[in-house]
Design brief:
Helix 6 (about 140-155) packs across helix 7, helix 7 crosses helix 8 and helix 11 crosses helix 12. The protein has helices spanning about 25-35, 40-50, 75, 120-125, 130-135, 140-155, 170-175, 180-195, 285-290, 325-330, 350-370, 405-410, and strands at about 65, 70, 200, 205-210, 245, 250-255, 260, 260-265, 275-280, 300-305, 310-315, 320, 335-340, 375-380, 425-430, 455-460, 490-495, 500-505, 510-515, 515-520, 530, 535-540, 545-550, 570-575, 580-595, 605-615, 620-625, 630. The strands form 9 sheets. Strands 5-11-10-13-9-14 form a 6-stranded mixed beta sheet. Strand 10 and strand 11 (about 310-315) form a beta hairpin. Among the domains are: about 25-75 and about 120-225, Lysozyme, CATH 1.10.530; about 415-535, no CATH class; about 540-630, no CATH class. The protein contains 12 helices and 28 strands. The chain is globular, with a radius of gyration of 25 Å.
Length: about 625
């Protein structure tokens, strides 16, 4: 049976009789298809799902895949991959318990790499082309992919047919998946691309098109002949449109009073699930899976694999994983770890993983009534520190190279203008590929990162780059300035975030940010923000400023006997009179008391104090509803 189309495919169908002259890359697909007798639509569809036809200047993906066909040579690519070590957060983020500071890191040491991570050497054998050519030359890379597909077709005993419907099994084999469900999900995505068609300009500026074949029906029974294992999908909480398996994180005691690596809960009956937190793993798939199965380590609900979008679930949605560094957010969120590296700008994420993640998030958002916006679909880098002392150590993944614009298009909630210039707000919305702010510290401290597309926009203290960058007193209590470091979020905003307009000067726009007026450059020819409207908060009349919090905890009187009251401690920030900040949600103060392995003593404490979640700086924050007034942004 043919799988249904992508939930929200974003592929512009290309007319079959397009007259534009073919690009060099388009010609390379045609030549490789002819040489290896692979239907050009199959070759283009596989490549789109892997890379959207981008070559990334020969740089490897997060799993060591090169070029438009994502040919993998992982051991070579990741031998020197950096680990972002700036964060010192306690992943539980619960001051009622001693801090949990695991020291283990994902590693490839001693790991036997599966075949899906070694496709480039195999392509070299099949084509006679050298590994360096397959990494750096897009045409050679496409030829390598065609050779792998042709070899898979022959191994299955299938003819080198001109009909793309006959290649389903070879496409499934190309994924490198070890289970049938993942291989089928990958092949279904490729055929969704072929049916819908696509046309786009690559990162090298070449136009490539794939004419739509809406009535194409592949022979899906071919996947049975691959001899792949069955997926351990029983017990998973995933949509049917993805491949998902259950690899449980342990709930175990391992010492006097010590247990891990998550807490049992009863969500959403006991507490609403209000956030989904996007992380990157900072390590390769095999090593990361080993860590989440360690009771002394930390946990998250789902891991997503870059090569094919495969998902592993580790913690049930009802339970509380230790992933975000803020206990309030942990208790009300689901954590998704994506295989990748924050500080490797050219270590790109595959389209297969973006699509699989978007399907999962859409499913979870619908199931738990989570709004699809940047105040509820959080990056780990937008989770606030729960207390003043924790702010400098909070993690900053998935970082400035995660493509939030494309991600929300796949979620079916593309960012767009929702008002005229009088709406009072802006939504940050740079063109990812063309937006290339300078960053440093990817490979070594202070050294420039590779020039790369980004979701981030830099903020200055005045309308010009000659002004200093905006300061973040929470990150740097000594008052020192922000930097262009890849892990320094003190002076930048990100795609999809919304802020109140504080002023304009020529091509520069000011927003309220961290209690200051912060400026970004947005020329008419290449705008990085669009007008919006919505609800904002400002201090109540007569208040010079109000405190800002990193968690929305109940008032002291709400705690029952036996549950210690948690401090409602403000962060080192304030919301001054006359400033406005965008509202994400309104919620009661809440605390999940879970400090013992025995769940009998666990309690959800809910107060009468109400809070607003706001977009305060790069991270979200909370203010007490009693301290502020909520008004429409244009008023």
């Amino acid at each position: 049976m043919v799988c249904g189309a992508l939930l929200l495919p974003l592929l512009a169908a290309a007319p079959a009789d397009a007259q534009a002259p073919p690009s060099g890359l388009q010609s390379a697909f045609a030549e490789a298809a002819a040489e290896y007798r692979v239907p050009q639509s199959v070759l283009l569809g596989v490549s789109y799902l892997q890379s959207r036809w981008d070559a990334h200047s020969g740089a490897p993906s997060v799993t060591g895949g090169y070029g438009p066909m994502h040919l993998t040579d992982t051991r070579t690519a990741l031998a020197g991959a950096p680990h972002h070590g700036e964060g010192t957060e306690d992943p539980r983020g619960d001051s009622a318990r001693p801090p949990l500071l695991p020291e283990a890191e994902p590693s490839l040491d001693g790991v036997e790499l599966p075949a899906r991570l070694r496709t480039l050497p195999r392509a070299a054998e099949l084509t006679g082309l050298g590994p360096e050519a397959l990494r750096a030359d897009p045409a050679a890379n496409v030829a390598g992919g065609a050779a792998l597909l042709a070899a898979a077709q022959r191994e299955l005993g299938e003819p080198l047919s001109a009909d793309p419907a006959d290649w389903y099994g070879a496409v499934a084999r190309f994924s490198g998946a070890e289970d049938g469900a993942t291989a089928a999900a990958y092949a279904n995505d490729v055929y969704d691309v072929i049916r819908g068609g696509a046309e786009r300009s690559t990162d090298a500026g070449e136009r490539v098109s794939l004419p739509a074949r809406p009535r194409l029906t592949p022979d899906t029974d071919q996947v049975r002949s691959l001899g792949l294992r069955a997926s351990a999908a029983e017990g998973t909480e995933c949509p049917a449109s993805v491949s998902c398996e259950w690899i449980p994180a342990p709930y175990e005691q391992f010492g006097e009073g010590d247990y891990g690596n998550h807490d049992r809960g009863n969500r959403p009956a006991s507490q609403d699930i209000e956030f989904i937190v996007v992380h990157d793993t900072e390590g390769a798939w095999e090593g990361v899976l080993n860590l989440v199965q360690d009771p002394t380590y930390v946990s998250w609900q789902y891991s997503l694999r870059s090569t094919d979008g495969h998902i592993a679930q580790h913690v049930k949605a009802k339970d509380v994983a230790w992933h975000a560094g803020n206990w309030y957010v942990n208790a009300k969120s689901i954590g998704l770890e994506h295989e990748g590296f924050l500080a490797s700008p050219d270590a790109w994420y595959t389209e297969a993983m973006y699509r699989s993640s978007a399907r999962l998030v859409r499913y979870l958002a619908k199931k738990y009534d989570i709004p699809l916006d940047r105040q509820h679909i959080l990056g780990h880098d937008t989770v606030p520190g729960p207390t003043s002392g924790t702010v400098p150590g909070m993690h900053t993944d998935p970082g400035p190279y995660w493509d939030w614009r494309h991600y929300f298009e796949l979620l079916g909630r593309p960012f767009e203008a929702t008002a005229g210039r009088s709406g009072g707000l802006v939504t940050i919305l740079p063109e990812y590929a063309a937006n290339r702010p300078e960053f440093t510290g990817c490979a070594s401290r202070g050294e420039p990162c590779a020039v790369h597309g980004s979701s981030a926009v830099r903020l200055y203290s005045g309308p010009g780059t000659e002004y200093p960058l905006i300061k973040d007193i929470g990150l740097r209590p000594d008052g020192s300035g922000s930097t262009t470091g890849v892990n320094d979020i003190g002076s930048r905003v990100s795609t999809g975030q919304q802020y109140a307009v504080a002023g304009r000067s020529g091509d520069w726009t000011a927003i309220w940010y961290l209690g200051q007026k912060a400026w970004f450059h947005s020329p008419a020819a290449q705008p990085v923000a669009v007008p919006a409207k919505g609800l904002v908060v400002t201090p109540r009349a007569g208040r010079a400023s109000v405190p800002v919090y990193g968690r929305a905890y109940p008032e002291a009187g709400a705690y029952p006997a036996g549950v210690p009251a948690q401090a409602v401690s403000p962060l080192p920030y304030e919301l001054p009179a006359g400033q406005r900040y965008v509202v994400g949600d309104k919620m009661p103060g809440e605390y999940y008391y879970a400090v013992t392995f025995d769940t009998a003593g666990h309690r959800v404490v809910r107060g009468t104090d109400q809070y607003y979640e706001i977009q305060y700086g790069h991270r979200v924050a909370f203010v007490r509803a009693a301290d502020v007034t909520a008004v429409p942004s244009g008023s």
